[in-house]
Structures are given as structure tokens and as C-alpha cells.
Amino acid sequence: MQYFTEHKWTQFVALFAVFFALIMVIDPATGGNLWRLQETQFWRLPDVINDGLKFLINDWWVVDIYDAELDLTEESTMMTEFTRGLSGVILFSINLIRELLLGGVKTVVAFTSWDFISEHEWARIPALPWTAVAAGTFLLGHYLGGRKLAILAGASTIYIAVFGQWTPAMQTLSFVLVAVPLSVFLGLALGIIAFKNKTFEAFLAPLLNVAQSMPHFSYLIPVVVFFGIGDHAGAISTVIFATPPMIRLTILGLKKVSPEVLEAGMMSGCSSRQLMFRVLIPTARHDILIGINQVIMQCLAMAVIASFIGARGLGYDLLVSLNMLKIGQALELGVSIVLIAVVLDKLSMAWAKKQVDYFADLPFHLRHKHSLAFLGILIFTSVIAYGASMVFPDKANYLYFIHESQGLTTGTFWDFIVDWIITNTYDSVQSFSFFMTTSILMPMKEAYLSMPVAATLFLVAGTGYIVGGLRSAVVVTAFIGFIALTPWWDRALITAYMATFAVIVSVIIGCSVGILCSRSPRATKAILLVCDTFQTFPSFVYLIPVIMLFGVSDLSVLIAVIVYATIPATRYTVEGLSNVPQTLQEAGSMSGVNRTQRLLKIELPLAFPHIMLGINQTVIFSLFMIIIGAFIGTDDLGQLIMQSLSQANGMGQGIVLGLCVAFIGLAVDHLIHTWAEQRKKVLGVA
């Protein structure tokens, strides 16, 4: 008995034995609630949510609103007025930035009228020449990170312009430049409140977990109902998605401030406000700026998703290209999104690392040499660009703007490559597809669908108890029990089967590649660069090539999921092995072990907690891409979420379905996190 309690693997063997016994005993025809929970009042939860949201929009806090244009007073609700006002402010901000970059009249109309615009042709904001913007990014990169960053930023901007993607790229950038400050402000404010109030932090923690695990499409449904469609709705959904990491990193940064710094601030007579803004926040600057970096990346990740509700830019054009199966054009758009993401990522990271020399006493022209250089370039390029447009009004002005039809393109080349691959690999691909579907995927899917509710909850509770005790058992059982109470248990099992297969394959590939690449510093840098590129590449792009090769099937989705979900498994394996102290590796070598023994006995055990966190992220990435896969047709929870987008009363259903997906991820996250923390304590690296 003592051996059984001390060795967890024996407990898992016993747990699985009982689990399979329950599967054999419970008959689908006569099992009743043991097989599937029957309909209860809980099934009305989506309708309750719908009714609550409708009441909030249509009946809560009715007020009289005077319309000056119509000279009428009409009834409205405070929620409607709030959402209308917020939408107006956000849309005005997006249009202002967009027209500063691309030119336009909407901002002027906001302060005048369309009649004023028609009477005065000069009343419009002129566009910035792309050459001026490219020079500005070059100078900003040089100021923040030196020559290499300047070349990266400038070359990326030139690529976007030369390939005719300037207009959608600037539309996306204007969208990001509004969403990022809103997310940063909200994240910073909520993070400060949570740091100062432990009760609020405890209340906020589960909400952040759910928000970061919810499928993107679940955000879109209530946003459309409350705010309509358009750039403003896309920005609001992006803010909801991008704010949680800012909150977490703000709290983390403030908690990391040493007590000595805090005491020094208090002893110098700082008030509570001065202590926060003059001591704590400047000291936590690095973590807060890392949070801003994460917000930027999250906002760009939502660029394509937000296009579903009317956000314009590269994401919208990419979605149109994918619908038309224009792979080459979609690839160019995807590369443009990646370049914007990489440039903003590098610039924000350089900003976070840049040290300010407060003691430098330089003259004005040296202190502001980059700003003055940009001002001079802006004036010069504007004069040249506008002058050329006036002298040659009928000619294309490549110094001012390069239209999509005038830009370079490699779309035909990539389309040819895809067609060649499809033509020359058709027979082998179809054989592989048939084997995988009939021999592996379908049996696995049927096995998952044969799992009774009672047996599954027993397995989940038992796993939680073995890994983390009674508390973990209650937490993970509550997550999965929520799903069992809904009418979508079978859909959740299909989602779980797809996630299981994808995670197993992704972990095998990712850990293997990570171990091999960690042996060489050059290979480490190369694989991390590949991971960065694949992670910033729009997820929708992965779907079209596999559809064209394998058709619309679970296998198509799973291949796209595996490509995307392998990234964190690879990254965390490389970083975990790279962080093993060199002294321990040398000690192992001096004790006579070879490289394989050192890897298996020293490096992998020490990197195991880090690798487990990578597996945790692999699960989250898999669930995200599985829901995206519903765009091409699957029969899991993602398909129902996609259907909710087009249903008049889809708010409640979309939210509950999103919670089901989130709870699958949170259950796995809790188990892996608990296990990783235990291993850290055992290894003495906690």
C-alpha cells in the first residue's frame, strides 16, 4: 500500500483501469445520466444570457435624448448612448490616424459638414508620402536600436510600399495605433488597482484566465450586438483580447519592486500617488514595457479576426484572398502583417531595453538630432512628391504612393509552386490522407465519443487528485462538469480528440527539434527566428494550402493545427535547455557521462518544468487553431461558435460555447502548471 501511495504511476494505472471498466459497464442505451446528462434548466443558460443582454441594451436605464438635427426628443437607454459615444470616439481616432497617413476628409467633416467639403476642395488632409514614413521608421529604429534595427524597420516599410500593400498596411497600422494605447491604459489602470487591492486581484485572476482562453470569435458576437460592425467594433474586440497580458505584467512588475526601494520612497516623504508614479512604476518600467510589447503582438494577431466584423486593412484583404484561393496574394499580405509585427515587436523591445542618460548635457540639435532629421526629410520628400504630382498630374508618382496595381508581386510564382505541388503529389497525398483518416483519426474520434460522462468526470477528478490533491480535483472537475451540463458534450469530445492528437504530434516534433537545435548556438538562433516568423504569420494562411492538398476534413485542420502548435513546444524546449546552468553541464561532463547521458540525466530533468509550460502553451495554441479550423468545416465546438456569429440570438450560445473551449484549456493549464511547480520544488529551482 505504501508503494502505491508513493508512486504516482501506479495510481494512474489504477485510475485508467477503473476508467475503462466504467466505459465497458455503462451502456449508451440504458446508461441515462451516467452516459450523457439529460436536459436540465442549465440548458437555458444561453437564453438567460441573451435575455439579460437584450434587457441591458433595450430596457435598462431609459433616458430622454434630444436630437438637435431633427428637433426631437426620443427615448434611449444609457447603454446605447454609452456604446454609441464610445464607438464615435474610437472611430474618429482611427480615421484621424488613417487620414494623416493616407489622406482623407472624414476628420474634417467631423468638425464641419459634407457641404463644406464639397464647397472647398482644399479642405482635406493630405497623405504622407511613403518615402517620408519609411525614413521615419529608419530613424526611429536607429534611435532605439542602432543600425541593424534601422535597416530592418526601413527595409520592411519599403517592402510594403513597393509590393503595393501601402493602403491596407496603413489601415491596419491606424487600427493598431488606437487599440494599443487603449489596451495599455486599461491594463495599467487595472493592474495598479489589483496591486493595491488584493481582493480585486483575487476577483480579477479567474476573469483574466477565462479571457485569455476564450476563442476569439466568442468576443465578436457581443461586440457586434453592442457596437455594430466596422473598424471601431474590431478595435473594441481587439482591446478585450489584448488587455489581459498588460494587466498581468503590470502586476508582476509592481510586485517585483524590492522592499528597499519602496521604503526609500516612503522615507523621502512621498505620498501614495507619488510613490506609485514616481517610484513603483519607473522601477517596474521594464516589465510594463514588455507588457506593451505583448499588447502590440496581440493586436496584430487580431487583425484578421477583426476583419470578420468590418475592420479594414491587411486582415480584410487577406480574408478576401483566401476566400478566392489566391495563395500567392494571401502570402504577400501575410508577409506584410509579419513584417509590421516584427518591426513593432523589435521597436517596442528596444524601447524597453533603452537606458535614458539623465546626466547627458548635450546641445539642442544633438539631443533632438533624430527628430530634426525626420522633419527635414519630411519637408524634402513632401515637396518632391507633391511637386511631382502637380507637374505630372497624369503620371504615376512612385515617390508619393505606389498603387496595388503598380507594385511588384510574386503571387504568380507562389501560385505556380502550389499548383505544381498539388499536381505532382496528388496520389501520394490521397493515400496518406485515406490511411490517416481511416486507421487513426476515425477510430480515435469514435473512442472519444464512446466516453460516458460519469467515466470522464471520474478520470478528470482522479487525475486532478493525483497531480495536485483535493483542490485540483475540485477545480478541474468543475471545469469539465460545466461542459457536461451543456447540450454540447459530444462536440466537446470531438474538440478534445482533435486537440489530443495535435498536441501529441506537436510535442513530439517540437521537443525533438528543440533538443537538436539546442546543441548549437547558431541553430538555436535560427529556430527561434523561425518560431517568431511562424507565430506572427496569420493563422488563416495555414489552412488554405492544406485544404488544397487534403480537401475539407479533420486531417486538413489537424495538419494546420500541428504546424501552428509546434511553435511553443519547440521554443520552450530550446529555452529550457539553454537555461540549464553551464556549471552543472560541466560537472556532469567531468563525472564521466557522455552527451546523451548528460542530456537525459541532467539537462532534460532540469528543463522539464520549462518544457511543461511549453506543452501548456501547445494545448492553448491547438485549441485556438481548432476553432479557426471551423472556418473550413469541422463538427466540433468551433463550428457552433462560427454559426453563432450569423444567428440573431447567438450571443448567449457563443459565450457559453466559448466558455466550454476556455474550460478545456484551463483544466489542462491547471494540471500542467501544478505539476510543473511541484517539479520545480523537487529540483530546487522554484
Query: What best-fitting shape do the alpha-carbon axes yield?
Result: globular
**Discrete helix count:** 30
- Our Rg estimate from Cα atoms comes to 28 Å
Mean pLDDT: 86
Strands across the major sheet, in which order? 1-2
Q: What helical percentage do the residues reach?
A: over 70%
Largest sheet data: 2 strands, antiparallel
Strand content: under 5%
- N/C terminus separation: 30 Å
Low-pLDDT segments, ≥5 res: none
Family: Belongs to the binding-protein-dependent transport system permease family.
Subcellular location: Cell membrane
Keywords: Cell membrane, Membrane, Transmembrane, Transmembrane helix, Transport
Pfam family, one: BPD_transp_1
What would your notes on this structure say?
The chain is an all-alpha fold. Helix content is 78%, strand content 2%. It contains 30 helices and two strands. It has helices at 2-6, 8-25, 45-58, 78-102, 106-111, 114-119, 130-145, 147-162, 166-196, 198-213, 216-227, 231-255, 259-267, 272-283, 285-301, 303-306, 314-323, 327-353, 364-367, 369-391, 411-449, 453-485, 489-517, 521-536, 543-550, 554-578, 582-590, 595-629, 637-645, 650-683; strands spanning 62-67, 72-77. It has a two-stranded antiparallel sheet. A hairpin with a 4-residue loop joins strand 1 and strand 2. The protein is globular. 42% of the residues are buried.
